[in-house]
Amino acid sequence: MLGAIFIHPAAAEDPVELVTKADHIRFPATDFQVKVVITTTSADSQPDVHEYQVLSKGNENTIVHTTEPASDRGQILLMKGRDLWVFMPSVSQPVRLPLSQRLTGQVANGDMARANFTGDYTPTLLRTDTINNTSYHVLELNAVDRTVTYHRVLYWIDKTSYRPFKAEFYSLSNHLIKTAHYRNFKQMEGEIRPTELLLIDALSNEQSLLVYSDMKRRELPDKIFTKDYLKKLE
Q1: C-alpha span between 65 and 98 (Å, rounded)
Q2: pTM of this prediction?
Q3: 3-class SS at 44?
Q4: Residue 17 and residue 214: Cα distance in Å, rounded?
Q5: Contact by Cβ (8 Å): 36, 54
Q6: What is the C-alpha separation between 181 and 197, in angstroms, rounded?
Q7: pLDDT digit string (tens) for 212-221?
Q8: Inter-residue contact 220 to 53 (CB < 8 Å)
Q9: 68-114 per-position pLDDT tens digit
Q10: SS (H, E, C) 69-129
Q11: List of residues 6+ apart from 12 with CB closer than 8 A
């Protein structure tokens, strides 16, 4: 008599690997720079536009240099790990800031300075959603501690391409703060990446559109990611 044949189901996707793959689609894992233009619109005001130059080394070191408007030009954010400082030309010493504090419009400091989810959240694979005939992994991301930008995130990742599709950001009291939509995927630095991130406030419906361009891989020495070096940046 032949023995029983056991067929093992395919192993479930590792949620940490899913988040890592999506992060590497959004931004290179190596040193890079990118230009970011943020346009914020609301029902009762004129569009507000800010421009930034971002230098990033992994997920632990980032510099966000404000280039427009002229009134904010020269302001620099420095992130090392989850520590964040702002340098302003009119102030002699850098000032410590939380990642969750608003930078402009619907954009928090952490949205610019620490944009990857890997390392900041513990992911759990919840379910699969089908939207417009495309299947998505839906993950729940819970903050590893209170220093990260958001307490909880629901994250939709394309099951086939691993591209990020949508994210919902929640407060400590579990209220929806805003929703992010990853859009306009184009070739940038060896990968098809989202060149637009649309953030929509859950209450006011104010919107901030982040447009990424001129992405370049660039070797960035560790010495520039220091408070003493901020004044030397061009």
Answers
A1: 17
A2: 0.90
A3: coil
A4: 28
A5: yes
A6: 6
A7: 999 999 999 9
A8: no
A9: 999 899 899 999 988 999 998 877 788 899 999 999 999 999 999 88
A10: CHHHCCCEEEEECCEEEEECCCCCCCEEECCCCEEECCEEHHHHHCCCCCCCEEEEEEEEE
A11: 125
